[in-house]
Amino acid sequence: MACPKPPSFSFATTSRTHLQPSGVTIDVPFLAETSNTQKRKLSQKRKTLSSCQSSIGGHLSPWPTYTSGQTILHNRKPCSDDYWKRAGSWQQHPLGTAKPKYLEQLENYLRKELLLLDLNTNPAQELRLQPYREIFEFFIEDFKTYKPLLSSIKNAYEVMLAHQREKIRALEPLKAKLVTVNEDCNERILAMRAEERSEISVLKKEKMNLLKLIDKKNEEKISLQSEVTKLRKNLAEEYLRYLTERDARKILIADLNELRYQREDMSLAQSPGIWGEDPMKLTLALKMARQDLARTQMELNTMKANFGDVVPRRDFEMQEKTNKDLQEQLESLRDDYEEVRKEHEILLQLHMSTLKERDQFYSELQEIQRTSTPRPDWIKCKEVVAGGPDRWHMLAKGKNSDQLVDVLLEEIGEGLLREKDFFPGLGYEESVPSFLRFDGMVENKKPTKKDVVNLLKDAWKERLAEEQKENFPDFFLNFLERRFGPTDAMAWAYTIFENIKLFRSNEIMSQFYAILTEKRSENVYIKQKETVTQLLKEMTNVDSQNEGLLTMEQLSTVLKSNFPLKKEEKIQELMEAGGWHTNSSNADLLNYRSLFMEDAEGQSMPFVQKLWEQYMDEKDEYLKELKQELGLELSDEVTLPQVHEALMIIDPSLDNQTLNSYLSQAFQLPVTEPPEDGEEKEEDIVLQLQTVLERLHMIDLRRKGPREQEPVS
After folding, report:
1. Which of 74, 272, 407, 684 is the most buried (most CB within 10 A)?
2. Inside any domain, residue 31
3. Is the N-terminal amide bond of 64 cis, ω within 30° of 0?
4. How far apart are the C-alpha atoms of 23 and 11, rounded to whole Å?
5. Residues 179-226: pLDDT tens digits?
6. Beta-sheet pairing, 549-550 with 441-443
7. CA 150 distance to own-chain centroid
8. What digits encode the pLDDT tens for the residues 229-288?
């Protein structure tokens, strides 16, 4: 049966060009102009090779197809025209026939061309492809039947190579730009470091100058104190000298007066004209003169007594000004001395407290060293835990000793749990949860940890989607009945309950166990999921290019807008949990979508875990602040108005609906029943403070706004 002829194809003539080294631009018009010349050169080379071709009748030698026996013959299409002819001819050839001459000539030609090119320096140059192109052209020209197909293959590779060259040429500027940007960043970093070093050196110099200034002030203070002491001593000496001079002056004046009186008496006795006057008149004049003298002497003595130690006004003002300056300097020195004394007392107190702390820590260290046990060698566990050292390193990564003990307990409990084939039923008592009320033995389904996590995720999806929300334990039992049927539902309930009770380190299992045992409200889990979803939505809105990347400023802005009450250090903790550290200089963008992923066992990324930790810490701080505001002990009783007033004080932004929900949960009242302020029946609602705080800890408790500052009296 004759085979159908292959359809004919029409292909454009492909021109071969001389290859250039990598990175050199190839001119396409030039290739078109030189195509005819290249074609003539190739035809001449092909004629040279074809003159020595060893094929007969236009057919190439079948080497080495016939050497492998019938295996290669069976791979031939039986419908080919020359199949039977070649099969007969191949059988006549001996097994030891050498290669065809045409093949040897092609190989020799290729070897010579490669030697002529001399590409030993860089064997990956594009010029090395030129001899292979020529060999491929020979095959295209000799195989007339396959020429269209081979030409299309060659054209496809040539187009792809041209495209890759263009792409490499387009990427060269980007590479240079990347190097430039890298150099600029390095220069900026070095400049910032140099600036910081200069600032540090300036601050150190300023510190040394201030210390020198303090020493200088202390020296001036000491010199001024010595000068004040010297001035006081001089003042006392001057005062004694003035007193001595005053007494000497009084004695001298008395002596002068006596001498004057004697001189006047002698002059009167010697004067000849006086004896001729009236003695009565002279006696009266003498009496009046003596009275005037006594009065004048009295006035003089009074003036001396009053103003004997008075100094001139100019000297007084100069001494007063000097005294004032010295007094100001003394007051300043006293203030400085008082400040230094206070600082010295503070330093002494700090030193004493540091000594006490040191002694206390030393005693505690001695006590711990005396009573503590050696730290366990956790490396021993890698040979015991299933999965070997790799799994143990994965489980122990980033955990302390307490957490490692929980991991070991989970591993041991998991092994014991898998050995159990049946669980004993807990009966139908009211204390038994509704989903575990069964009498008898139930089968252990022995699912994997991943299966349990997936089952819990499906339960949460159905719980969030339902409209008629029933009690969570009842819903869980109904969900298992819908999933596995009434027969196996109880067995799955016991199996899942035992698993989530064991694996407390798993986030989904621990939260599901707390909600299932009514130790936590399911609204806590729902609100946390809504918060994470809203945060991812905000980051997606900021990512306008939809590349999944955010800068540090964008991430900080989104976190601050979603959590306005968080402090700056809390925002920094979230960013560090997301993989962004303050000392990282090589990270410009952050893949924010990876922050919200979960592993196969339902564990969230550190970013979401840090969100949950901060939420629990904020709730504990909120309840602690409420307890401090009430001013009661845990065993004391508290009324509903007291809790109402304390909540409004620590969180004034609480709306009535949220406040009523908090009070209803704390005192187990319907949401619509909490009485308003001033009603008498509030006094009848009394509970222990510990009970109130435990009930508030179960629900989704969040601060609505900042606490108002109390006015300063």
Report:
1. 407
2. no
3. yes
4. 30
5. 999 999 999 999 999 999 999 999 999 999 999 999 999 999 999 999
6. unpaired
7. 60
8. 999 999 999 999 998 888 889 898 988 888 888 888 777 666 555 455 677 888 888 888
> E-assigned strands of 555-704?
590-591, 637-639, 686-688
Check whether residue 653 and residue 595 sit in a common domain. no
| pLDDT value at residue 82 | 47
Same domain, 590 and 541: yes
Q: Domain span at residue 524?
A: 520-619
Helices (H), 372-435: 388-396, 401-419
Q: Closest Cα to residue 63, out of 38, 95, 105, 34?
A: 95
**Calpha distance 525→613 (Å, rounded):** 13
Q: What is the pLDDT of residue 42?
A: 52
Between CA 351 and CA 364 the distance in angstroms is 19
CB neighbour class for 250 (10 Å; exposed up to 12, middle 13-18, buried from 19): middle
**φ and ψ at 264, to 5 degrees?**
-65, -40
The pLDDT value recorded for residue 269 is: 64
Residue 233, H or E segment: helix 147-270
Nearby residues of 18 by Cβ (< 8 Å), 6 or more positions away: 34, 38, 127, 130
* 3-state helix/strand/coil string of 536-552: HHHHHHHCCCCCCEECH
| In the predicted structure, residue 102 carries a pLDDT above the cut 90 | no
What's the mean per-residue pLDDT of the chain?
A: 77
Cα separation values, 689 from 88, 635, 670, Å: 106, 6, 20
In a domain, 531, yes or no: yes
* In-domain check, residue 713: yes
Q: Do 437 and 476 lie in a common domain?
A: yes
Q: What is the pLDDT of residues 304-341, one digit of tens each?
A: 888 777 777 888 889 899 999 999 999 999 999 999 99
Segment holding 424, helix H or strand E: strand 422-424
Last residue of a domain, one of 519, 554, 587: 519
pLDDT given for residue 66 in this prediction: 40
Strands 422-424 and 441-443: antiparallel
* Those residues with Cβ within 8 angstroms of residue 113's Cβ, 6 or more apart along the chain or in another chain: 130, 131, 134
Identify the band that residue 87 occupies on the pLDDT scale cut at 50, 70 and 90: very low
Output the domain CATH number for residue 595. Answer: 1.10.238
pLDDT in tens, 4-52: 343 333 333 333 333 333 333 334 333 333 444 554 555 555 555 554 4
Report whether 322 contacts 314 (CB < 8 A): no
Burial class (CB in 10 A: 0-12, 13-18, 19+), 493: buried
Alpha helices in 638-680 (DSSP H): 640-650, 656-667
Give the residue from 588, 619, 650 where a domain finishes: 619
CA distance 222 to 72: 115
Residue 587 and residue 220: Cα distance in Å, rounded? 56
In DSSP terms, which residues pair with 500 in a beta bridge? Answer: none
Sequence-distant (≥ 6) Cβ neighbours of residue 331 within 8 angstroms: none
Average of pLDDT values for 345-356?
92
Per-residue DSSP letter, 428:
S
Coil, strand or helix at 302 = helix
Q: Is the alpha carbon torsion for 615, 619, 625, 626 positive or negative? A: positive
Q: pLDDT for 678-700, tens place per residue?
A: 444 444 678 888 888 888 888 88
Task: Output the six-digit token pair for 338.
Answer: 């008082």
Distance CA 465, CA 619 (A): 28
pLDDT band of 468, cuts 50, 70, 90:
low
Phi, psi of 669 (to 5 degrees): -120, 155
Q: In the 8-state DSSP scheme, what is residue 503? A: -
Question: What is the structure's pLDDT at 79?
Answer: 39
Which pairing describes strands 590-591 and 637-639: parallel, antiparallel, or unpaired? unpaired
- For residues 106 and 46, give the distance between their C-alpha atoms in angstroms, rounded to a whole number: 10
Q: In angstroms, rounded to a whole number, what is the distance separating the alpha carbons of residues 182 and 171? A: 16
Q: Which residue has the tokens 């039923």?
A: 425
